[in-house]
């Protein structure tokens, strides 16, 4: 035995595996987890933290402590390269880590336009912990003067961020303007009922929604779009779509259209069977998946089983993405929009269901 399992990333798809590191240790294996922070923040509750509905401790897992308590090794670092032939990971610090088996759960990064001038008041929705810094600095200025906050992106992340900004700035002394720049279509991939319900709640929360093309660049906190006038904002939050890290393509691994690691029905790289992956950083070849947390949660038990089975030379389990998933937006002020198949609910009940599900998930792994 005595093989080296490396978990590249401490995200949602690795939760079950990280909770059971002691099992790998009991089987005689070494386990190393690599992540950029001692904590992992649950993205589903990030906008709620921005709106002051949750505090950082409510939405994060102490991954270093959890791993080290079980005898694993935690490296606070970021992965910048992989050599699948030599079975090595290259880290931002310059260190290299060899592996016998590796599983990637390195998430995704927000698409950033050309930016000139100061970036001090420009934030992205990932990493999640940056939203707490945004909350602190936005509130500090809003208590001194009138401000404008721009949210760029018309998808779920942009919608939730804009709604929770409405909650954050509800009682400040000076007027605050929140503008959501929703590209060419507000929630364009969703049914008309979800669009209308979400728009109504956001407008009630003081959010102005504009559809004036895609953001092309930012200069000194002035936003320029493919159509429509340019706009100035005191703070800018980018929720403009995401992409996996480039190191999969750079290593010559099979990738999907967005550069995510291509995996088969076992969540396994076809060319290098000792490589697995889950979450936003993969491309599930059999059925491209939306970049939503529900799939990472569904991948958890399969990754745990298959990593253990591969190390032991046993049969792997297939991953079933399942049917339509429950989607709930937290739009601030304890209001939400829920969709599952034909069912659509908006208002306080939708928020309460999401809040209960999220807190249950946190209790399970915290």
Brief rundown of the structure:
It contains ten helices and 26 strands. By secondary structure, the chain is an alpha/beta fold.
**What is the distance, rounded to the nearest whole angstrom, between the alpha carbons of the first and last residues?**
30 Å
Strand content is: 25-35%
- Helicity range of the residues? 25-40%
**What is the 3D shape?**
globular
**Lateral strand order in the biggest sheet:** 5-2-1-9-22
Assigned CATH class of the largest domain: Alpha Beta
Structural class: alpha/beta
The CATH topology assignment of the largest domain is FAD/NAD(P)-binding domain
Number of strands: 26
Under the CATH scheme, the architecture of the largest domain is 3-Layer(bba) Sandwich
- Work out the count of structural domains: 2
Give the radius of gyration.
21 Å
What would you give as the CATH superfamily of the largest domain?
FAD/NAD(P)-binding domain
The averaged pLDDT comes out at: 95
Report the total helices.
10
Model regions low in confidence, pLDDT < 50 over at least 5 residues: none
Main pleated sheet:
5 strands, parallel
């Amino acid at each position: 035995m005595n093989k080296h399992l490396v978990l590249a990333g401490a995200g949602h798809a690795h939760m079950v595996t990280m909770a059971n590191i002691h099992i790998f240790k009991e089987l005689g294996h070494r386990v190393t987890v690599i992540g950029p922070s001692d904590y992992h923040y649950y993205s589903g509750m990030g906008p709620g933290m921005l709106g002051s509905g949750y505090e950082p401790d409510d939405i994060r897992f102490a991954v270093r402590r959890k791993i080290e308590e079980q005898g694993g090794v935690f490296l606070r670092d970021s992965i910048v390269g992989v050599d699948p032939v030599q079975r090595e990971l290259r880290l931002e610090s310059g260190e290299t880590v060899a592996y016998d088996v590796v599983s990637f759960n390195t998430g995704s990064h927000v698409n950033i336009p050309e930016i000139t001038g100061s970036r001090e008041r420009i934030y992205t929705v990932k990493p999640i912990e940056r939203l707490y810094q945004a909350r602190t600095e936005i509130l500090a200025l809003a208590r001194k003067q009138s401000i404008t906050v721009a949210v760029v992106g018309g998808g779920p992340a942009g919608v939730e961020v804009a709604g929770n900004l409405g909650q954050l700035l509800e009682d400040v002394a000076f007027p605050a303007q929140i503008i959501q720049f929703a590209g060419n279509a507000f929630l364009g991939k969703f049914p008309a009922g979800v669009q209308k319900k979400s728009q109504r709640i956001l407008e009630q929360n003081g959010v102005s929604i504009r559809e004036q093309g895609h953001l092309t660049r930012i200069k000194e906190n002035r936003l320029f779009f493919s159509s429509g006038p340019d706009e100035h904002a005191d703070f800018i939050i980018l929720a403009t779509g995401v992409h996996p890290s480039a190191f999969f393509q750079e290593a010559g691994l099979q990738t999907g259209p967005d550069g995510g690691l291509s995996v088969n029905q076992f969540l396994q790289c076809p060319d290098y069977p000792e490589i697995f992956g889950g979450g936003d950083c993969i491309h599930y070849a059999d059925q491209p998946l939306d970049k939503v947390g529900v799939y990472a949660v569904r991948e958890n038990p399969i990754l745990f089983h298959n990593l253990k089975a591969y190390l032991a030379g046993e049969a792997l389990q297939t991953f079933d993405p399942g049917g339509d998933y429950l989607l709930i937006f937290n739009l601030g002020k304890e209001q939400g929009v829920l969709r599952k198949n034909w069912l659509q609910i908006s208002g306080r009940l939708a928020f309460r269901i999401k809040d209960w599900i999220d807190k249950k998930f946190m209790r399970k792994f915290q």
